[in-house]
């Protein structure tokens, strides 16, 4: 294939190094040349039809793989083809191998991988001697996949020496001998000597080895080419010869604001593998074919209407799913659609029509690779005239590093006006689509949390050994760019300063009686109106101390020993459906009372109502009442509350150290399977700073003195009209517009929510009701430490409102970027 000007894309290398291609007439139409940044080999054969380094029409890419598969079928005959298994090579040929398998017929496909998967034992492996990353793992879900005696079809993008094929066949033949192997590639570039080695090896093991390729030839390499190639790479990488490495963006002080990333929910079918790392069966293929039109339609809807040139960009081994999405998209949009994939392969970029790699984007690995951090690349994207890029990654690669200022999405946004992100859930063997017979029992202290085992059972899974924390500023930027969800990572658990701890204890001393009265009042309302023996289900983690206190009140006043569990609810993702299933299996849903600390604008109230309705529709389980019981309802969002005053609830002042040493809950597809509880961490290492029992005991100690007041308050509440007015939501919408934020999610009303903003997010400013007193002492201290202005406002419906920085980038006005010191 030639460049648009008609120049062969191997000309530049051929002229400077004397490298040439000799062979079939269409060889140069399939391949160009570039220079590797690899001491083992000077040149790189760059395929125009593979969909890796060069964006190409997905129909062309897929068509070449299908054609090779059909040729293999003709070679084998129908009977042997039906018994064949296809094995593709990571990372470059994973998509090609899958396409070959599609052309060959309804059979199983597996590709090697360089990503170990926890809990999956390798069924084999082999080395790729010339590569920059050599170790290949074989991780089939069904180990018998490689144990049959039918033909094994091995697919790679090119054959340069044949060493990789020899290593593979040798390793697999020792375990499970076969009579026949078929080796498939886009191009066969072996020398006659290399070709002879494969024939000799086949005779030695007593098997037939056939080879199918779209084109064949050899590479002519002059003497000293390796040294000359190194010198040329060094010359261009030094910047003195006009190289086109676009990895470094413009000065951030002059660069225009990065447009937000649009996340697209593909609604990938549950349990459908994202590729063939663990095997891909004919049944999987049928499910994928049925789902592709709908997924492509969702992508098309998210694209800008005026996009004329669109790239669907896969991620390393994840080639086939992006390719098929791109091919389907190509059929339904007027835009020119191209497909390519990011890569580990380090290649020199030169902006010349006669060179195959015109530009490169460099970014850090974002899938926590087993071989450690390193650079990754996207070639021929910058300067290619794309109006939009759809980045398709699997869930383990959807990390803060992906959304970081130097991550892939940021690099794309520097060169393409519109960036979309689609995340495919990574398939892990053992996660079945069938509902498990039994869900795990709740976690309890002291193994999980510093609360006593009878105080609360956590319907969560323990992720304490997983690193999930990211700097506050990095998380904020990723969240606001539209990529990362706040529940996919955790803020760092900062420790309070001595001054801040003094404020906490002072606030607790001042408010313990008021808090005890609110606890008693809401518990009495629950017992009278909801159930005489309620099952308390707190929304982790802010609701959990409240649930424990309500349980203690019921025991103190009525001698009741109420069950109490903590479950996860995530804004935008709903409540943990598996937790609801466990509750429905062990209790009457009509007795369940959901508990939280306070309401702000009522977002969680709405989230819970929608989630319960969805659960009823999906599972057919009815009876759960979605109304939350809270201590304080300043937003007027619920009917069951202790007070509607916006006052300081001291447990809002801290993070895990007042919540049983438990983190905020986590929901990430690679960690939480379809039949897992949501996750959380137990910060055992913070035991020395734990104030959780002290907080509970301080409030419960005031129960006897507030009994009469609770009786009176409960009587008034039961007689009052407590219909929610949603005044808080209206106030938030007004503030959002008045301050030019235009996003209610960045407006956090109430003392509790404002405190969360100061501790976990990047605050812009704090609005304080004029004359607000000691309830805001801790907020004022946090604001002073973080350089955040506090603005007094007359007639504010809340004691205070925290505003998260809109359109945040690090260094933005209103936050100094320092770590929180509280």
From TrEMBL:
Superkingdom field: Bacteria
Protein name as catalogued: Adenine/guanine phosphoribosyltransferase-like PRPP-binding protein
Biased composition (Basic and acidic residues): 245-254
Residue ranges annotated for the Orotate phosphoribosyltransferase-like domain, each copy included: 30-217
Domain TRSP: from-to ranges: 274-410
Lineage: Bacteria, Bacillati, Actinomycetota, Actinomycetes, Kitasatosporales
Bilayer-spanning residue ranges: none
Limits of the PELOTA RNA-binding domain: 726-805
Domain Cysteine protease StiP N-terminal: 449-699
Annotated stretches, region: Disordered: 237-268
Pfam families, alphabetized: PELOTA_1, PRTase_2, StiP, TRSP
């Amino acid at each position: 294939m030639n460049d648009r000007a008609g120049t062969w894309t191997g000309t530049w290398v051929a002229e400077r190094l004397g490298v040439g291609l000799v062979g079939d007439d269409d060889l140069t139409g399939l391949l160009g040349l570039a220079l590797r940044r690899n001491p083992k080999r000077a040149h790189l054969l760059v395929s125009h039809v593979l969909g890796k380094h060069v964006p190409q029409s997905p129909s062309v890419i897929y068509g070449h793989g299908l054609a090779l598969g059909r040729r293999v079928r003709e070679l084998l005959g129908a009977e042997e083809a039906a018994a064949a298994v296809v094995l593709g090579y990571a990372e470059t040929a994973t998509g090609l191998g899958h396409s070959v398998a599609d052309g060959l017929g309804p059979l199983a496909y597996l590709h090697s991988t360089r990503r170990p998967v926890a809990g999956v034992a390798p069924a084999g492996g082999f080395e790729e001697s010339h590569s920059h990353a050599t170790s290949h793992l074989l991780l089939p879900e069904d180990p018998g996949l490689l144990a049959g005696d039918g033909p094994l079809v091995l697919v790679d993008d090119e054959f340069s020496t044949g060493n990789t094929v020899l290593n593979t066949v040798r390793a697999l033949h020792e375990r499970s001998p076969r009579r026949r192997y078929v080796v498939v590639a886009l191009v066969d570039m072996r020398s006659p000597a290399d070709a002879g080695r494969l024939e000799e090896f086949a005779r030695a093991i007593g098997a037939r080895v056939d080879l199918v390729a779209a084109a064949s030839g050899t590479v002519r390499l002059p003497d000293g080419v390796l040294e000359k190639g190194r010198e040329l790479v060094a010359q261009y990488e030094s910047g003195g010869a006009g190289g086109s490495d676009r990895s470094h963006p413009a000065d951030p002080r002059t660069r225009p604001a990065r447009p937000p990333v649009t996340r697209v929910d593909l609604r990938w079918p549950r349990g459908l593998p994202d590729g063939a790392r663990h095997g891909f069966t004919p049944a999987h293929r049928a499910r994928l074919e049925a789902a592709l039109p709908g997924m492509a339609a969702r992508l098309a809807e998210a694209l800008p209407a005026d996009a004329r040139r669109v790239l669907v960009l896969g991620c390393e081994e994840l080639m086939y799913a992006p390719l098929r999405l791109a091919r389907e998209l190509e059929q339904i949009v007027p835009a020119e659609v191209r497909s390519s994939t990011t890569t580990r392969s380090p290649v020199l970029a030169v902006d010349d029509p006669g060179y195959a790699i015109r530009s490169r984007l460099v970014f850090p690995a974002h899938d926590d690779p087993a071989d450690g951090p390193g650079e990754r690349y996207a070639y021929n994207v910058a300067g290619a005239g794309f109006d939009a890029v759809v980045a398709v990654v699997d869930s383990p690669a959807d990390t803060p590093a992906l959304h970081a200022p130097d991550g892939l999405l940021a690099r794309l946004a520097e060169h393409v006006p519109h960036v979309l992100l689609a995340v495919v859930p990574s398939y892990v063997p053992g996660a079945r689509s069938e509902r498990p017979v039994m869900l795990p029992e709740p976690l309890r202290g002291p193994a999980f949390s510093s609360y006593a085992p009878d105080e609360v059972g956590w319907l969560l899974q323990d992720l304490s050994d997983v690193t999930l924390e990211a700097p506050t500023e990095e998380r904020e930027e990723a969240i606001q760019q539209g990529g990362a969800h706040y529940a996919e990572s955790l803020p760092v658990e900062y420790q309070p300063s001595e001054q801040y701890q003094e404020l906490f204890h002072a606030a607790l001393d001042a408010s313990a009686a008021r808090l005890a009265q609110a606890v008693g009042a809401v518990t009495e309302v629950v017992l009278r109106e909801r159930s005489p023996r309620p099952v308390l289900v707190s929304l982790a983690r802010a609701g959990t101390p409240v649930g424990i206190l309500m349980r203690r009140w019921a025991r103190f006043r009525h001698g009741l020993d109420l069950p109490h569990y903590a479950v996860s609810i995530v804004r935008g993702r709903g409540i943990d459906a598996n937790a609801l299933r466990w509750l429905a299996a062990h209790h009457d849903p009509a007795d369940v009372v959901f508990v939280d600390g306070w309401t702000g604008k009522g977002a969680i109230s709405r989230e819970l109502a929608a989630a319960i309705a969805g659960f009823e529709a999906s599972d057919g389980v009815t009876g759960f009442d979605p109304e939350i019981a809270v201590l304080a309802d300043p937003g007027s969002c619920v009917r069951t509350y202790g007070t509607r005053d916006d006052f300081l609830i001291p447990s809002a002042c801290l993070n895990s150290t007042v919540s049983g040493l438990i983190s905020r809950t986590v929901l990430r597809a690679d960690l939480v399977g379809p039949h897992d509880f949501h996750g959380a961490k137990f910060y055992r290492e913070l035991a020395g700073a734990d104030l959780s029992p002290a907080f509970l005991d301080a409030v419960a100690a005031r129960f006897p003195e507030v009994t009469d007041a609770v009786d009176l308050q409960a009587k008034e509440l039961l007689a009052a009209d407590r219909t929610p007015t949603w005044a808080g939501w209206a106030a938030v919408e007004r503030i959002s517009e008045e301050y030019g934020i235009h996003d209610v999610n960045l407006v956090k009303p109430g003392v509790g929510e404002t405190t969360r903003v100061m501790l976990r997010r990047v605050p812009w400013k704090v609005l304080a009701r004029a004359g607000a007193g000691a309830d805001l002492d801790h907020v004022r201290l946090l604001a002073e430490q973080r350089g955040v202005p506090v603005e007094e406002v007359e007639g504010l419906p809340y004691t205070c409102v925290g505003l998260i920085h809109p359109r945040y980038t690090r260094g933005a006005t209103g936050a100094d970027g320092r770590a929180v010191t509280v």
